[in-house]
Amino acid sequence: xxxxxxxxxxxxxxxxxxxxxxxxxxxxxxxxxxxxxxxxxxxxxxxxxxxxxxxxxxxxxxxxxxxxxxxxxxxxxxxxxxxxxxxxxxxxxxxxxxxxxxxxxxxxxxxxxxxxxxxxxxxxxxxxxxxxxxxxxxxxxxxxxxxxxxxxxxxxxxxxxxxxxxxxxxxxxxxxxxxxxxxxxxxxxxxxxxxxxxxxxxxxxxxxxxxxxxxxxxxxxxxxxxxxxxxxxxxxxxxxxxxxxxxxxxxxxxxxxxxxxxxxxxxxxxxxxxxxxxxxxxxxxxxxxxxxxxxxxxxxxxxxxxxxxxxxxxxxxxxxxxxxxxxxxxxxxxxxxxxxxxxxxxxxxxxxxxxxxxxxxxxxxxxxxxxxxxxxxxxxxxxxxxxxxxx
Length: 391
Fold this sequence. Notes:
Oligomer: single chain
């Protein structure tokens, strides 16, 4: 599935197709975002094992804690504090120490967190096999997120032989409990034909269930179906509605995708608002270089704006080139040259300095943004992405 929302410029194309935002495709891990966890630039979402799907889904497990429940809760509190740097200096090794103490007492939440740490090498040596074993123990204790993690590992062949058929079985078990993340993954499997016959109708059924449960990835996928899917009805109004809900949940790919959709189809934008501009700015602040490039194009061409601003366009193209590395630098080269031709040396230097200052304030790559706080991704989850706005 690829987008048809191009901005119509001649030198290069910034659009969903060029950015490779897709519902279909093999599961991808946003390695850059996960890597930043280790140097303190990205804070994980913590909260005692509450999942992104259903905060109460593990309540029955918590009621069956062992007799040392108070001690386990204290150990978990210490572990999450060290993981996030709340009230103490951030220390992944100490977080692993306290999670292991609780995990060794049979606590499934702590066991799931140990699997998470081993998956990414946070506070421990990276070891997919160990990660899978911890997830299996936690899943045996009834922890839904651990079962979801096992499914992802079977989908990707991480720490265990790849087995998409068994992954589907695990996901269907979770989906029967209305787990929105599992519904989303099932939709992706049917879109891809991964372990199942490719079937866009069945895929839409699962993605629709996920979206109805207010899962931002499911809402994003439905927005993609209604806007860019080759074999699906296009309805930009419906697409915008789904994407808008996903963006409200802080999902950065939805912010970028909706921003581009609104630039190309302003008729579905909210009245009397700078919705597209705001969305693209937020996505750019989260590290999505394509958003920075689209902002440059809008300013260069006066697209959706009151007037052109070559200086501001030069700043955003400079930001995009730095954010996206060699690929972005190559794609913005022509636009930067065009802006330079329209600016004096002094104006270029001023905008270059402004870009450097902006980049210092937004030196991170993120997947979720919550309430204006630092962008985050769910802790405790392997999180295989199929819809990242960046690659």
